[in-house]
Amino acid sequence: MARERLENLIFEREEEYDPYFEDELDRRRPRWIKERSEYFENYDDLDFVTHFRLSKPSALSVL
């Protein structure tokens, strides 16, 4: 079964109905997406260095 799925992916064949695969999709946990924090704006220079061990100008030069 795994070999057939791999061959289907390699050769881009249409897969037959696979109830196991559909059940696998249903069992996934929902994704939780949280908003990113703006570290450059929220942290002062000392907190930024304490958290990242890098100064703000150094972090900007890396980016």
Describe this structure as you would to a colleague.
By secondary structure, the chain is an all-alpha fold. It has one domain (2-28, 38-62). Helix content is 59%, strand content 0%. It has helices at 2-11, 19-26, 39-42, 45-52, 56-62. The longest helix is centred in the N-terminal third of the chain and has 10 residues, at 2-11.
Q: Strand-residue fraction? A: under 5%
Q: What best-fitting shape do the alpha-carbon axes yield?
A: elongated
Q: What's the total count of β strands?
A: 0
Supply the helix-strand structural class: mainly alpha
Query: What share of the residues lie within helices?
Result: 55-70%
Number of domains: 1
Radius of gyration, CA atoms, in whole angstroms: 23 Å
Largest sheet: none
Instruction: Give the helix tally.
Output: 5
What attributes characterize this protein structure?
elongated, 63 residues, single chain
Layout: helices, strands, pairs:
Elements: H1 2-11, H2 19-26, H3 39-42, H4 45-52, H5 56-62
Outline:
By secondary structure, the chain is mostly helical. It is built from 5 helices and no strands. Helices cover 59% and strands 0% of the residues.
